[in-house]
Amino acid sequence: MEQLRLVWDEAFTAYDFGPGHPMAPIRLELSAMLSRDLGLLAAPGVALMSAEPAPDALLRQVHDASYLDAVRRASLDPTGADLRFGLGGDDTPAFIGMHEASARIAAASREAALAVWTGQAEHAVNFCGGMHHAMPDRASGFCVYNDIALAIRGLLDAGAERVAYVDTDVHHGDGVQKAFWDDDRVLTISLHESGRVLFPGTGFADELGGPDAEGAAVNVALPPGTADAGWLRAFDAVVPRLLREFRPQFLVTQHGCDTHMLDPLAHLALSIDAQRAAAVALHDLAHELCDGKWLATGGGGYEVVDVVPRTWAHLVGIAAHRPVDPVVEIPESWRDHVGIRCRRPAPYRMTDGGSTEHRPWSTGSDPGDSLDRAVLATRRAVFPLYGLDPWFD
After folding, report:
1. CA angle centred on 80, ends 76 and 85, rounded to 5°
2. What is the pTM for the complete model shown?
3. Which of 160, 226, 356, 377 is the 20 to 30 Å CA partner of 39?
4. What is the mean pLDDT of residues 163-179?
């Protein structure tokens, strides 16, 4: 069995909305190169994989046929992109080959998940994926096809009875929540900046799932400015308890790194070190609860030099069971490439020097604190549905 099935091929950089768009494909290139230069791609048990674009028959499992037709038309002629389907404009502009590029990402996440489910690999990572905003009938938030939903659907079709999804992107994982709103076999947990101040404007504590799946959707809407200690406190107060109650057979996670203090599109204040700590915790939960069955994807993240490559290289190292020490100096070869390619300095170490110390929920809560109020709102809405006490651990 492989330790890690890692999705990477330069073909994935074809997902390109053009100059000036935040979702720049260089994010992927630099993440793969840093992982390589750290020795992770050549580590024992790591196997690279690519994928052919998913056929329409698979994409129709999570997307409407009329939407697929609209994407195909826009993919051939971007000037005819139909805004009724979320295509065109500044958010998700159309580009030549958009269908093929998006369908390749979707297929890769599905195939990687099934490789883990069937025992070919213990873990899988697709940092090219994580398109959690794509809806059944429209593109949204830079996301065309929902690779995560397609991967989870593939797992259910393959016999999985309980799949848990944890989304750590700064934006609410609305597309995945929508896909499984009425399916009690899938638990979706999203920790994100509050929709009162940030796209997509959803993801509040009272969004709990449909009539047949109440409690299957969990949302922690964090106040702007939340930093390492508060974010990790919120994570620990919600995620492990609910995952242990749900007892998933497979864990899917989304690791958008736009929670970082330097990200230009949001207002949280995490460090690389807190993002790494979240990945470590989710990896450990996968081993505790799912016999290690874990698919991790990328997602948002728009500080493309200082943040995205380091966070996702840490993710690759954790999944490869070759975790990178935060104090490690970044290889000179990668720093030189950044200087030539981006004409700017590169970071020197795999850490921001942040602390992952935080006050556990078991020490008590403060209703006067905005972070604790957000966590309490979620726990009060969800925990009783699982027979858990919202106030105490």
Report:
1. 95
2. 0.98
3. 356
4. 98
d(CA 163, CA 2): 22
Classify residue 89 as left (phi > 0), alpha (psi -120 to 50) or beta: left
Quote helix, strand, coil % in the chain, to nearest 5: 40, 15, 45
Spatial distance between the Cα atoms of 151 and 157, rounded to a whole number of angstroms: 10
Q: Which residue type does 174 have?
A: D
Determine the structural domain holding residue 187 and report its residue range: 2-49+108-386
Can you give the pLDDT at residue 393? Answer: 80
Q: Is residue 54 part of a domain?
A: no
pLDDT digits (tens, 9 = 90+) for 294-304: 999 999 999 99
Q: How far apart are CA 98 and CA 85, in angstroms?
A: 14
Residue 1's Cβ-count burial label (10 Å; 0-12, 13-18, 19+) is: exposed
CB 199 within 8 A of CB 141: yes
Number of structural domains found in the chain:
1
Q: Which positions are catalytic?
A: 133
